[in-house]
Design brief:
This protein is mostly helical. The chain has 7 helices and no strands. The protein is globular.
Amino acid sequence: MSLIALDRSILIFFNRSFRCEFLDFLSILFADPRPFIPIIILILLYLFYRGGRNLRINILWLFLLILLSDQVSCHLLKPIFGRIRPCHSIVLSTPLGCSRSYSFPSGHATNIMAFAIFVMLNNRKWGPGFLFLALVVSLSRLYLGVHYPSDILGGWLVGAGLAVLVNALKNKIGFASRSKKSG
């Protein structure tokens, strides 16, 4: 079986095998982060206010990372690859409809994996929970019929790579600023 055929088969399996109103509701809920943004901002502001210096620095870097990952996935890579969404070429259940934007890499998968890996690198206690959330959000993209599995994997790789790079930059700058103060 070719990789393209495997990609299509996995997508069709996730899109058609588990259809129910509850999963439709959950997948649609995970598809649009806008309703959660005020809650997330309030939580981050609370943590920023109540947390220590390291937590504040991590929150600021996390904002930078998400801005970067969204721009890279949606505005740089999608136009370069120009991959048409699967819902335009395969008969799928698409509760949200079928967007005209490109599909590779998945912006949702890129952003949520960047977030999860950054948290994992900086807080091993919370990291696994965010990795699980990344898996759920990513699988919802298959369930909704808006991405191929390879779009998700590509997003995971881009998001993880950006998280590692931003975290390394954060640590380098953090180390440099501490050594200047102590010297």
